[in-house]
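Interim report, section 4.2 (structural modelling).
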Amino acid sequence: MNVLSELKSIISGLSVPVETGVFSGEAPDEYAVLVPLGDEFPLNGDDYPLTDEQSCRISLFTKGNYLRLKKQITLSLLSAGFTVEARRYEGYDAGAGYHQLTIDVAKLYDMQEE
Amino acid sequence: MARCTVRLPEEFLKRLSSLGERTDEVAAKALQAGGEIILAEARENLRRSVGSGTKYPSRSTGQLESSLGLSKARVDRNGDHNVKIGFSEGRGGGGSNAAVANVLEYGKHGQPAKPFLAPAKKKAGREALEAMKRAIEEEAKK
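Predicted structure of the assembly:
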């Protein structure tokens, strides 16, 4: 399991199309883009990393109610064990008609499980 | 009732007292040391992000990178010491460096994000903390 596959599963489970890096093709009224932020080994034992901290930025774009979407996704992330590090409303793009939200998340993965 | 008195070594007490009098100076040096490390990482990330993966050939002038810098340590209204990593303004050709950086960091509809600040904080955060500790320890020895 890794952060990208888990986030894709959570967000697409809420019927929000999601892609990594850039949204290819014609964008729907509501979609998400995942951008990895980093990988860290915060805990080591016997000169070997024990945990892998993976972090990712979720950029949400919606023409609808962004508060509803933010709440839905945040609750799903928290119940899946993610740490929500930051949530930020980027603004409304009047040209394209999208509200943009950013949620930065991180999760620790056990190295032994991979 | 049992009673316990702990006496700190005289030398240590002198150092603590000396640090207390120089709080502003010591905090500024520590923040500067930590900030320089994050700044270097952010600048490196920015260099890699600007002009990469663009639809058309990049016309980057390097203005954004050269405007990235570290502020002097200042005390905010809560009494906390801070340094800030950010962009100086006065962008040639108009516009704002901060606005350009914001689009790069967070992206927008039709333009993928190329984060450079958040990864710098993640990657160099621990190193910056160690540099700040070293700076404080050096000051404590004086």
